[in-house]
Amino acid sequence: MPSALLLVPDFSLILIGWLLVRYSPFDRAFWGGVERLVYFVLFPALLLQSTNTAVLDFSSTSAMLGLALLVLATGVAGGYAVKWVLRPDAASFASGLQTAFRFNSYIGLALAARLGGSEGLALMAVIVGCTVPLCNVLAVWALARHGQAALWKELARNPLILATAGGLATNLMGLHAPEVLGMTLNRLGSASTALGLMTVGAGLQMSGATGTAGPVAWWTGVKLLAMPCVAWLVGRHLPLTALQYQIVVLYASLPTASSAYILAVRMGGNGPMVAATISLMTVAAIVTTPLWLALVS
């Protein structure tokens, strides 16, 4: 089946979330609670279990991980460049910078499983495990510099960083959850995928980018065009398996993280602009992500 068709069920969940928030009693307040549940409980459970049980054979995935880090560096550099090119105000820059390099793990893990089954999920989990801490550190750092938040305090209580670090540490030490606990984490993680995608749809809102259309368009281009282009071009010359190549291009082409809005609001940033950027990238990725995957199929 073509990659574009494989993505339809998961993007359909985003559409369902968008429809429910507009045409059902489940309003934004309801979905705000669901988003917090996913962000603080369900998604950390998925990250903890997937990184704890992933086969961390760095000898066979080192090229893929190296490319993923190069892609991340491209996003950081490209996102930061807007400071000199378009000169947004300090609050908008600090809030929006993260949208250029963070990625929506809900969509990424769901699509990776769709593309490669358990092996695809494990490969994406390894990328998530290595890049999520870096993404969160960079995002919190930018906002902490702008506001009054303490960087290390924010990092120490970030559930995604804690879950990923815990999963990787216990995996490397050879410590794995008992079967009953593992099954519980799997159930929580499974719930996070569908609910996470639906909350992405429920959170779509295009208003809020007034006065910042230029930076928003810039960050969108960096995330959906520049980053996957680097993955596609460089990946062709690396010793990657076909699935590893697909997964790293998928990672590079994902829209920005929906949790970027939560972080921006909690740390006193420009929340409405970040919400509009997330929405624009998510809608655009419905078109761009299948196109990038078609190039590597």
From TrEMBL:
PANTHER family assigned: AUXIN EFFLUX CARRIER FAMILY PROTEIN
Compartments, record wording: Cell membrane
Pfam family, one: Mem_trans
The protein's name: Permease
GO terms under biological process: transmembrane transport
InterPro entries in UniProt: Mem_transp_PIN-like (IPR004776), Na+/solute_symporter_sf (IPR038770)
Key words, A-Z: Cell membrane, Membrane, Transmembrane, Transmembrane helix, Transport
Main location class: membrane
TM stretches of this protein: 6-25, 37-56, 62-82, 121-144, 156-173, 216-235, 247-267, 273-295
Topology term for the membrane: Multi-pass membrane protein
Family: Belongs to the auxin efflux carrier (TC 2.A.69) family.
Gene Ontology CC annotation, any one: plasma membrane
